[in-house]
Amino acid sequence: MEYGSQSFVAMFDAIARTMDENRDHLCALDGVIGDADHGIAMQQGFSAVKQAVDALDVATVTPTDVFNTAARVFLNAVGASSGPLYATALMRAGATLRGKTAASGHDLAALVPAMTRGIADRGKAAPGDKTMLDTWSSSSARVEAMLDAGAEPAAILAAAIEAAEAGAQSTIAMEARMGRAARLGARSVGNMDAGAASAAVLIKAMLGSFVA
Amino acid sequence: MAKTKKIINSGAAVVDEMVEGICLAHSDLVMALPDSPRSLVARHGPRPGKVGMVIGGGSGHEPSFLGFVGKGLADAAAVGNVFASPPPDPILACARAASKGAGVVFLYGNYAGDVMNFDMAAEMAAMEDIEVRTIVTTDDVASAPPDQKHKRRGVAGNFFVFKAAGAACDKMLPIDEVERIANLANSRTYTVGVGLSACSLPQTRVPNFQLGEDEMEIGLGIHGEPGVERGPLRTADAIVDDMIDRIFAEMKPARGDRVALLVNSLGGTPLMELYVMNRRVRQRLAEAGVEVHATWVGPYCTSLEAAGASVTLFHLDDELTGLLDRPADCAMFRA
Question: Is the dihedral of CA A31, A34, A36, A38 positive or negative?
Answer without folding.
Answer: negative
